[in-house]
Specification:
homodimer, Multidrug-efflux Transporter Regulator, Chain: A, Domain 2, two-stranded antiparallel ribbon, elongated, DNA-binding
Chain lengths: 133, 133
DNA sequence: CTTGACCTTCCAGACGCTGGAAGCTTTAAA
DNA sequence: TTTAAAGCTTCCAGCGTCTGGAAGGTCAAG
């Protein structure tokens, strides 16, 4: 199939699919006219990439997952630990974002938000009398 | 003060400070020897940038915050709404990450994680019998 | 035969730095 | 005084992950 069809079934834009070829993730055959020719297996791999990318795996992690997927003798534990590690990273990010939210929330609560020129938020950013954090 | 000192008091690496000059955020004077010469005000602005970047504001948002900071007649409401908008973005990101976490958590729970070659996580990524999402 | 959709390649840009090379100046120690 | 180290300069390139655009080839429909 052409790249347009591959894009349709994988849910990835053609530009992204070409990029994935460039970095060696999914390298299709070529038709006589020079067009990329994706097999069904290629289509599966692209869909696999779309799904794992959307779950927050990096390109290199996806490469690893793909090679585990290709390896018929791999242990499922390898995959599980990669996923667990990803969960830990996500939790860490959430914790950081919650911290930011709290700090910004404090700032916003302290700001009267009217037309007066003094503003506790800017005062805090400038390092005056820190509210917190 | 030289860039090293400015780095020290702002908490930003020299490379970053040079970059901020390049994009016009903080442009210092120059000494006779060609070295950057940061005033105390420059130092404050760098610290301001360090703090607002660490709170998740983008460079362009920081530029806006700095100009609000410079403008003695600005309304604090402008700043407040920018901060509130940032909070909304953060909440949105947290919600997305929680969704990812749930999905990955389901996958991990379903995976036996031993040495057997079949793996529900890879099966899901490949699009077989979706567990959720 | 023409139009328009689709395909190709290549180059550049987005964000926000970060690293390194090559070559200054200044400072401190031997 | 010489020398070595630290700090400064500029310029160029790269990180990750695409995304946009230009210039041009190919194909299917009317």
């Amino acid at each position: 199939m052409n790249i347009g069809k591959a894009a349709e079934i994988s849910g990835l834009p053609p530009k992204t699919i070409r990029y994935y070829e460039e970095i060696g993730l999914v390298v299709p055959d070529r038709s006589e006219n020079g067009y990329r020719d994706y097999s069904d297996v290629d289509g599966h791999r692209l869909k696999f990439l779309q799904r794992s990318r959307s779950l927050g795996f990096s390109i290199e992690e996806c490469r690893m997952l793909l090679s585990l997927y290709d390896d018929k003798h791999r242990a499922s534990g390898d995959v599980k630990s990669l996923a667990q590690q990803k969960i830990d990273e996500i939790e860490e990010k959430i914790a950081q974002l919650n911290g930011l939210k709290t700090t910004l929330g404090n700032l916003v609560r302290c700001c009267h938000g009217d037309h007066r020129p003094d503003c506790p938020i800017l005062d805090d950013l400038a390092g005056k009398e820190p509210l917190n954090s």
